[in-house]
Amino acid sequence: MFKSNSYFNGNVVSIAFNGVDGEATVGVMSPGEYEFGTSKQEHMKIISGSMQVKLPGEDTFKRYDKDDIFIVNANLKFNLIVEVETAYLCLYK
């Protein structure tokens, strides 16, 4: 069964599902700045749009565009700057 989640006053919406590669979410983000925490390792793939990401331990943001993937280990926080509506797929490991 799907589970829908909404964050940041509805500016980030995701749907959780069990895919062939395991637990995952697919979602969309409106333009804005966000901080997320992880409970599992997350493999984030940009489906549409782009975002700037500041990974744990980094001092600067790096841009990720369509088809780019970044990984955030469990129990860490990371920051995003989203300038255009962006869709993503997140796989939990």
UniProtKB/TrEMBL annotation:
Checking Pfam families in the record gives:
Ppnp
Lineage, opening ranks: Bacteria, Bacillati, Bacillota, Clostridia, Eubacteriales
Is Transcription regulation given among the entry's keywords? no
Q: Which GO terms describe its cellular component?
A: cytosol
Write down the superkingdom of origin: Bacteria
- Specify the protein name: Uncharacterized protein
GO MF? purine-nucleoside phosphorylase activity; pyrimidine-nucleoside phosphorylase activity
- What are the protein's UniProt keywords? Glycosyltransferase, Transferase
- Asked whether the keyword Transferase is assigned, the reply is yes
Q: List the InterPro entries hit by this protein, alphabetically.
A: Ppnp, RmlC-like_jellyroll, RmlC_Cupin_sf
